[in-house]
Amino acid sequence: SAEVRSTNPFSVRANIKGFLEGAYSSTSHGMRTDIFNLIPLTQPYNASPWNYAGEEKLTSVPANVVDWILVELRTSAANSTRSARRSALLLSNGSVVELDGASPLGIDLIPAGSYYVVLSHRNHLPIMSSGGLPLTSAPSSLDFTTGQGQAYGTLPMNQLESGVFGLVAGDANNTSIISASDANAVFGALNSTAYSQGDVNMTGIVTAADANVVFGNLNRSSQVPGAAPQTVRDKPTEKLSHERMNVK
């Protein structure tokens, strides 16, 4: 049900783990898959502010998928050092995987080296690794869920339960800061049962509970350099990033 990516001597792979606050259940110690039947077969990050032109597609959604997620690699913390991006699948156990729903994430046509890893989601605040992760064709591991120090910046995540951390929910309008505008985006989509940005708690329907999530995280902002609301993402860089990937 999934695409198979090519491999070459310069491809890098990683076992990345991250949780989304909106979908997390402290009962199961993992994420709910309530929106499973709403997940699109084509990656959803082709719109602003991501403007990611990757062609990742599924024929069907693999088991245990929570949602699509966008992964970016940088050679330093600076936004200007982006080397590549691609969309991938996020499983209920937090694993970021290939489109087959199981294999470690792979990115082709970039050299092995040390990369900062950015995770972006369509209604959570982006996070970035606190340091460079050595990447080669043999998968390296990065687990954001084990502590705030795994991610860059000051309080970049929320504690979901004792010793467990995840991306902050509530960025319904994708500005990388949570404000009253996000609550307005939720109220504007009330009762929607579609694949909605306003469904920040990822239950499959937009309700007042989503607004409560926004209010609980008011004034939180992404700590990822370049993710501030006023940032203008330059399209030439986006195009170059996409061309570095070999999605089949």
Give the helix/strand layout.
Layout: E1 12-17, E2 24-25, E3 30-31, E4 65-74, E5 82-91, E6 95-97, E7 105-107, E8 113-121, E9 124-128, E10 133-135, E11 140-143, E12 158-161, E13 164-166, H1 180-187, H2 208-216, H3 235-243
Parallel strand pairs: 1-11
Antiparallel strand pairs: 1-6, 1-7, 2-3, 4-5, 4-8, 5-6, 8-9, 8-10, 12-13
Helix pairs in contact: 1-2
Descriptive account of the structure:
There is one protein chain. The protein has 248 residues and is of the alpha+beta class. 10% of the residues lie in helices and 26% in strands. It has three helices and 13 strands; from the N terminus they run βββββββββββββααα. Strands 1, 4, 5, 6, 7, 8, 9, 10 and 11 form a nine-stranded mixed sheet that branches. A two-stranded antiparallel sheet has the order 2-3. A two-stranded antiparallel ribbon has the order 12-13. The longest helix has 9 residues, at 208-216. It is globular and about 45 Å long. The two termini are 14 Å apart. Mean pLDDT is 89; it is low at 1-7 and 230-248.
